[in-house]
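Lecture 7 notes: from sequence to structure.
We start with the chain below.
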Amino acid sequence: MAKISFVFPGQGAQFVGMGKDFYDNFDIAKKLFDEADDALGYSIKKMCFEGSEEDLKLTANTQPAILVVSVIAAEILKSEGINAEVAGGHSLGEYSALVAAGSIKFRDAVVLVHKRGQFMQEAVPVGEGSMAAIIGLDDQIIIDACNEISDNVQAVNFNCPGQIVIAGTTKGVDAAVEKLKAAGAKKAVVLPVSAPFHSTLMKPAAEKLSAELDKIEIKNAAFPVAANFNGKIETDSAEIKNNLVSQADHPVKWIDCVKSMQNFGANTFIECGPGKTLCGFNRRIDKQISSFNVENIDSLKKTIEAVKGA
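Predicted structure tokens for the same chain:
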């Protein structure tokens, strides 16, 4: 029988109102939102439910907000008898996956990703770094074009065939966008983000993150979790920590993550948390994957019916 994988979204999936109907209908959601508020010292619950989009978009807020809603979605699925045998998460989502696998305590993860967001923003001043999505070009063309530009720019998110995200200095990304448009990209769009995530410019953030990871307990994962850094599934606590540090200033190998989860036997992927971004990537990676998402009561019911009825 095909295994179930829980996958967790990264930054950009957030929206005001996310998690509200979970909170209104499930005790576990109330418990985890309250625990997150207590850990952070401010109300991430209020920010999710009624905060301004601007506040929610701040990296240090976005990361814990998405993690909380994502973990709640996974916990509700578990309470309904749907359990993962392998997991993965895109960028920030890797932390949600590790919480689901029992490797990192929820409370520790909430504080950790809040700091991760701060460290990433501090690494490059606002306006000096950016990211852009490149659609419709082969990986190697994009990699080569970035290497030819004198300013720092590189391919950082290998999301699905035909979609790669580049990051670096604002000047470098702008130059790469023009070069890749001329090379035949269907789209080359600068993203509304405040820092060049997963680029080498994030090295200061990775170093600070390593120090924070030293302060918390990381256990062996109860089931394998795919690492963005190398695309491999892992359960060993020491390797998990190393992968999280490396993830901050290295590319996200999401295609490899999905293929590793498939090789482990997963064919039903449930995206836990806001949005359907990873479901979309799955369709481009392999149309044979059965993808579902859980971001509210409606999508929860549909997923439960589909998975239990399979």
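Points to note: The CA atoms of residues 2 and 182 lie 44 Å apart. The two ends are 11 Å apart (CA to CA).
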